């Protein structure tokens, strides 16, 4: 029976360079049509490059981590290999004869001899490669390089089976090139149009793991292992263990029929559940699982697994196995590509958050720094102005407290550079003046230290309440500045240390020190003597006492305060000048940051999100195929929702079909998909199972994105029309709040909370759907989106936050409490969308209905407050709702279909 074409459908695209030595073989064009796949999302099959520019922003735009985004070299190499390499069937086996026999079965012709090759011990079969050509041709070539000029036996006449001399390496061959060369056979065969076939050489020539390693660099290998014995030999087990050690490829094990027999089941008959020795051995080696079907039938798992086929007529299962192997490789490549897209997209989104925070916080920090410095300056000036009298009293008190201690220290003082006679003899005038000067210095230094310590303690609280906060604020401003501005920030910190730590010192040039020296000079003038006195304890004590009594506390206090005010004014002016310089530097930086933030939101992130959508859709369609559209369930502004019975193991499903009209809608949809797919599963959000891009939607007239989601029973609009009990409606309100809170906890704002976007399951529990307008706050561009009657007034200004969802919930809660889908009277009177928006901006809100409970009405009014900052947090709304539900459901248990009657 000919086996021609049993693997058709497995080919591959884009192997440039595999046949460079002599030009590409004929007939390769059909492979690109069969194997062609959009591996690199967003590009055509004719241009399969990885489009790195889509992942890396233009250089020079920013010095932030965005410039570090690039395609990891290892993943790029892997994906490029998937694009460039073609599939290839590699035939391994227990011996060379059985490998040749399997090749003949695949081609359906007796190309290779199966009985004339040498025995297993002395076999020298070289590597064989079968490829497609319009004419049958045999040549000897180095793998992937050049054809060798060599006369083969096959060249000398016609042949049906390749001569054995050409297949084996001759024992007397001394040329290393001839030993390594492979025999390439081109044939006009349908199977070879789809895939090359390589027969591994004898293990004596080259180990199997080396052959497989070389092949894996140039091809996508589909590995077969030919068997003809009932059990694996020890050598076979060692070979398979080596393969498993270095490679993770699945293997198709096929038991070849005995030579000369027809292709029938040649294995012994066994009981249905009985496993063969081969199966047990392969299971022990880790190739098969205990649940593997011994008959070789394909399993339910789409991931390729090793397979054992012992019935010869089931060689056709190699077709299924090949598809699974190649599909697994494609899925892995699509997954790797998508992970890169998602990782880079997450970096963009996180950077958008950082840039938004920088734009908001930096001006506030600068303003805070200016305000706090002014408060500190005024506080210190007040201290200097009002504490002069206190400082005078403090100096008098300090002198009185220290007087005895100073006198004792002066009396016991040992002078430097003065020789005092021990017998009490007088000394010269020069020595007397030197002694007096040293006593003066002692008094000044001790007084300086005491006054400074008391002054510092009087303003210590300012250091904690002002200086520490200022320093921390300046440090944060410094981190976000360029290197050229660091000097300014450091200077500001030095000013703070010098001016506001209030470390009062009297240096030699200070006005306080000069004043003290003038006062102490008068001591020398008042001390009179006929002859120079003796330097005694009494004399030193007298000099110190005269010096202390000559000091004027009022003059000293006035001088200290004046000096303090002078230093304070100087520091304040320097601080203000430096702050203006710092502010100017940040102003220029923030302008660049805002430009980059705009590019991230409107250019980089959306484009990358579209690539992410395409690579993920490729992965989904490879795994689960394109979903089948059922009956139409509903229509919206941007798409149609269909029933989908089963897809990817999920059933039933709802399929949202969206045909983006332009690039903006494409990007918005891609971002929606990324946010939905990135969210952890939550019971109050509708699950997104996957996506598929249909490039032939509507008969090929357009491209549509098919989002496959969890299917629920109905939406809240339909539920209210059908009638829901009070308890059910309040539980739905709680479910919606829980869902919105979860979105907010993930940094997302829904922006379109309404009746149609709340779906109910069969138990009437609510889930939020349609994240078409859902975005992180940092990615919102200020666009006006949503459903008019649910839109908060600030949406029209373009500046808003997640409180718009609280407003929308307030409107939704009005419907829930009314138990009806009828428009509020204030909105029904509006003749157009613009009329409605103008009324909302002027404060128009839904009216209070007689059935409303007072607490419910207050909650509605709070949620739709015109001032976003006055709207309650959902963390407060949720327990309030729970309390309302517990109270009202108890009192309305006998009237489940009535509204929330205020009278109760």
Low-confidence parts: 1-64, 262-266, 498-509
CA radius of gyration is: 45 Å
Globular, elongated, flat, extended or rod-shaped: what is the shape?
Answer: flat
Q: Helical amount among residues, as a percent range?
A: 40-55%
**Helix and strand composition category:** alpha/beta
Tell me what portion of residues adopts beta-strand conformation. 5-15%
Mean pLDDT figure: 79
Largest sheet: 8 strands, mixed
What's the quick description here?
The protein is of the alpha/beta class.
Secondary structure: elements and pairs:
Elements: H1 29-35, H2 73-84, E1 86-93, H3 96-107, E2 128-132, E3 137-141, H4 164-167, H5 176-180, E4 182-187, H6 190-194, E5 196-199, H7 208-218, E6 219-227, H8 234-246, E7 251-255, H9 277-284, E8 307-309, H10 317-386, H11 388-411, H12 429-458, H13 460-479, H14 486-500, H15 511-526, H16 537-550, H17 553-624, E9 632-635, E10 640-644, E11 653-658, H18 663-678, E12 688-696, H19 697-700, E13 702-710, E14 714-715, H20 716-722, H21 726-745, E15 748-749, E16 758-760, E17 766-768, E18 775-776, H22 803-818, H23 825-828, H24 833-841, H25 854-863, H26 874-891
Parallel strand pairs: 1-5, 1-6, 2-4, 6-7, 7-8
Antiparallel strand pairs: 2-5, 3-4, 9-10, 10-11, 11-13, 12-13, 14-16, 15-18, 16-17
